[in-house]
Design a protein that fits this description.
The chain is mostly helical. Helices cover 36% and strands 0% of the residues. The protein has two domains: 65 residues, no CATH class; 112 residues, Flavocytochrome C3, Chain A (Flavocytochrome C3, Chain A, domain 2). The protein binds heme C (2 copies).
């Protein structure tokens, strides 16, 4: 019972020492290591700036491909596979030499050394029978722009360039405008 005031005084002394030590530690810490502090500042400051410019892009379905924002100690649910559309509807091409997307499913359409299922319908000779658009002349040209009698080897594996249409949302936002949009935006400039 007699120790009680002593313990209280001891506790206050320890507290004061701790506060002083903390303050001194902070001061010297700030003085002795200005470089790490400066570099972390430098590393972190441009990031908000970059983020603000990125905000101008329309908001796509932004994903972090590896974790998709799921904390590291949790297992995320994988996103559903995109559904292949089979509607026979052509999509606009974003630029003149874009390989058109395939407006039908291609499940089990074999393409190998011996057979090419796509050419069953898209070869010039068969196109009328299947009412399919025949492959264009570029598919018969070799790399020296010479026309071959049969499909050019470099255009043989169709899905190297042509992809099916899916209902997938864009993975990242982007500001892409096709050339018609770009041209239609600057008539005043041309008039000057
Ligand atoms: C059974 C016949 C058939 C087969 C096999 C076939 N297609 Fe088609 N394809 C068509 C038809 C018909 C169209 C026209 C649009 C429609 O009716 O779907 C077409 C359209 C296309 C178009 C769109 C052309 C354009 O101008 O927009 C592409 C590209 C295409 N097919 C690529 C392929 C590829 C690549 C394969 C093989 C993986 C393939 N097709 C296999 C019948 C076929
Ligand atoms: C190296 C890339 C590439 C490969 C491989 C390729 N294509 Fe194409 N394809 C294109 C491009 C680019 C276009 C659009 C411009 C053009 O017609 O050359 C096109 C256009 C087409 C068209 C539309 C033709 C038209 O007149 O509008 C069809 C149909 C087509 N391809 C089918 C096929 C088939 C079937 C195969 C496989 C035998 C194939 N393509 C292989 C790049 C390719």
């Amino acid at each position: 019972m007699r120790d009680k005031p002593l313990i209280a005084i001891g506790a206050i002394v320890v507290l004061i020492v701790a506060v002083i030590a903390f303050a001194v530690g902070r001061k010297t810490g700030g003085e002795s290591s200005p470089h790490p502090a400066a570099t972390t500042m430098a590393a972190t400051t441009p990031a908000p700036a970059a983020a603000s410019t990125a905000e101008e892009a329309p908001h796509g379905n932004q994903i972090d491909a590896i974790r998709r924002g799921v904390p590291i100690d949790q297992e995320g649910a994988p996103p559903l596979l995109a559904r292949v559309e089979n509607a026979d509807i052509k999509r606009n091409r974003a630029y003149p030499m874009q390989p058109p997307t395939i407006p039908h499913t291609i499940d089990n359409y074999q393409i190998d050394k011996n057979s090419n299922r796509c050419l069953l319908c898209h070869a010039r000779a068969n196109a009328d029978k299947f009412q399919a658009p025949p492959v264009s002349v570029t598919h018969y040209m070799d790399r020296d722009d010479q026309f071959l009698a049969t499909i050019s080897p470099r255009r043989y594996f169709c899905n190297q360039c042509h992809v099916v249409q899916t209902d997938a949302k864009p993975l990242v936002a982007n500001n892409f405008k096709d050339i018609d949009t770009v041209l239609s935006e600057q008539p005043q400039k041309k008039a000057n």
